[in-house]
Amino acid sequence: MDKAVNSKRSAAKSPAPARVTREEAEAAVRTLIQWAGDDPDREGLRSTPSRVVRAYEEWFAGYKDHPRDYLKRTFEETGGYDEVVVLRDIRFESHCEHHMAPIIGRVHIGYLPRNRVVGISKLARLVEVYAKRLQIQEKMTAEIATCLDEVLKPHGVAVVTEATHQCMTTRGIHKTGVSMVTSRMLGVFRDHAETRQEFLAAIGIRGGGHSYNGG
Ligand SMILES: [Zn+2]
Predict the structure, then answer these.
(1) Which of 161, 182, 94, 183 lies closest to 134, judged by CA?
(2) How far apart are CA 132 and CA 129, in angstroms?
(3) Who contacts 10 (Cβ-Cβ below 8 Å, separation ≥6)?
(4) 193 C-alpha to center of ligand 1: Å?
(5) What is the pLDDT of residue 114?
(6) CA 102, chain centre distance (Å)
(7) Closest by CA position to 215, among listed 163, 165, 155, 160
(8) Which residue among 23, 76, 97, 150 is the active-site one?
(9) Among 37, 72, 141, 167, which one is most buried in terms of CB atoms within 10 A?
(10) Is residue 60 helix, strand or coil?
(11) Angle at CA 179, nearest 5°, toward 209 and 59?
(12) Distance from residue 93's CA to the centre of ligand 1 (Å)
């Protein structure tokens, strides 16, 4: 039963992420099909390993990109604009690093520009790059905020993520309808309750009773 995966095991021992071949990745999928209890050679499953590997190329495309460099190339002068910029409901699809199950949700981003702004599509792209990796929601939220903060150097950054985790809804405790909310507030959004409230109101989250204070 293990025949398909016992080749090239040594590659996984190197400290840097090992590149595996497409054939090795497809062999691993075959093994998982067998592990699930099915026959990878039956007609309906024969092309599944290659389809899954192609799907992985989309789901985990974020490893190829460096969001910092990407954002750096795209800022523009603000022309004196000094109000909070909010982009809400940026849909994302990610995968949890514990079960490799989908995490699906929305990210809301706010920042108070100092002298640079980025286009809406760049913010959406930033979310995408971090989402298309194995993630935990807290880390993804923090990574988006930190990247914006470091590249744009604004007066503050606010990121709120709401998502459902299929590892929670389809297995384990089977809690459907539960979404997790994580936030990272930096600069004025952390230090000034009014600015934070302005952002939370803009994205339709009531601040009272929650502690959106930096983490
Ligand atoms: Zn999980």
Answers:
(1) 94
(2) 5
(3) none
(4) 33
(5) 87
(6) 10
(7) 160
(8) 97
(9) 141
(10) coil
(11) 140
(12) 13
Assess whether 167 carries a catalytic annotation. Answer: yes
Question: What would the 3-class secondary structure string for 144-204 be?
Answer: HHHHHHHHHCCCEEEEEEEEEEHHHHCCCCCCCCCCEEEEEEEEHHHHCHHHHHHHHHHCC
97 belongs to the catalytic site: yes
Q: Is 98 a catalytic residue?
A: yes
Q: Name the amino acid, one letter, at 12.
A: A
Please give the chain's pLDDT, 215 residues, in tens.
344 444 444 444 446 677 899 999 999 999 999 999 999 999 999 999 999 999 999 999 999 888 887 777 666 777 777 889 999 999 999 999 999 999 999 999 999 998 888 888 889 999 999 999 999 999 999 999 999 999 999 999 999 999 999 998 888 877 778 899 999 999 999 999 999 999 999 999 755 444 444 43
Instruction: Determine the distance separating the centroid of ligand 1 and the alpha carbon of 138, expressed in angstroms.
Output: 12
CA–CA separation, 32 and 51 (whole Å): 14
pTM of the model: 0.84
Instruction: Give the three-state DSSP class for 135.
Output: strand
User: 192 catalytic, yes or no?
Assistant: no
